[in-house]
Amino acid sequence: MTKPPLTLRLAAPRGFCAGVDRAIKIVEMAIEKWGPPVYVRHEIVHNRYVVDGLRAKGAVFVEELDEAPDDRPVIFSAHGVPKAIPAEAARREMIYVDATCPLVSKVHIEAERHSQNGLQMVMIGHAGHPETLGTMGQLPPGEVLLVETPADVAGLEPRDPEKLAFITQTTLSVDDTADIVAALRARFPSIIGPHKEDICYATTNRQAAVKAMAGGIDALLVVGAPNSSNSKRLVEVGRKAGCTHAQLVQRATDIDWRSLDGMRALGVTAGASAPEVLIDEVIAALRERYDVTLDFVETAQENVEFKVPRVLREPA
Questions:
Q1: Which residues are annotated as a binding site?
Q2: Structural domains of the chain in order of their starting residue, each with its CATH number
Q3: CA 227/CA 11 separation, integer angstroms
């Protein structure tokens, strides 16, 4: 049978960001240096394929520090952790390595600096997300007020409306965050914002690529995990930009093929924690069913690289 034609628009940039790449290297280098098992508090990044691959090499993933023994190294995930976690690891004299993305650490430093200047923080983020918990945990309880929507701004009860600053989770929707910032500035005109945008370059670039392709595709596939904030935002951005049929898939086996019947142009992108091998898998599955013409939609080039901690570069 003749395969139906399909224009496959592949977003660039897509997939791994520098912070994710660094975090995975940290786990791999820790296993190589200290031998297995190496414990990791929370998924190092939000991707089952990556986590399973590291588990096979000797990583043991736990949700809380008390699940890790004192005599084995422990790694903190790329999302960041509350201050109390490394403090407890130090008290237990554990070997620990912090894989927090440097761009998340930047937000932590920013929050501490504002707090030292007497400002109460407002954090724009998703309740319960590890990055939000880690950032809010940099300061004492009550010093960081969380908002998720513009409507939440009306309910804020700060200690002093004239002494506020805001920070954001790094993986939010750029447009949605702008709406919340506008609401904050309208209610608290003197509120201080970040010196430089908190939403990271990778999140911004991936969303821009989706917006650029959304008007010219019939459907959008976002390769990423259901607990990945930046992946879920790509689905939302695609829908808001005009591609009403956007679906999140962890890998090719998750694709809802019936929903793609009759399409002529399909967009494919991936969240910042999805490896290229899963994107290749999706493309291969599409080639089995369609006569694919590949079209790249490039809106930016990325050459960011973060160094791993020095402890991993030193001899054991």
A1: 17, 46, 79, 101, 129, 170, 200, 228-230, 273
A2: 5-16+200-298 (3.40.1010.20), 18-101 (3.40.50.11270), 103-187 (3.40.1010.20)
A3: 21
Q: Binding site residues for dimethylallyl diphosphate, as ranges?
A: 46, 79, 129, 228-230, 273
Question: Which one from 64, 131, 298, 305 is the annotated catalytic residue?
Answer: 131
Residue 110 annotated as catalytic: no
- Phi then psi for residue 288, to 5 deg, are -65, -30
Per residue in 223-253, pLDDT (tens digit) is 999 999 999 999 999 999 999 999 999 999 9
Bind-site residues for isopentenyl diphosphate: 46, 79, 129, 228-230, 273
What's the alpha-carbon Rg for the chain, to the nearest Å? 21
Q: Are 30 and 308 in contact (CB under 8 A)?
A: no
Is the whole-model pTM more than 0.85? yes
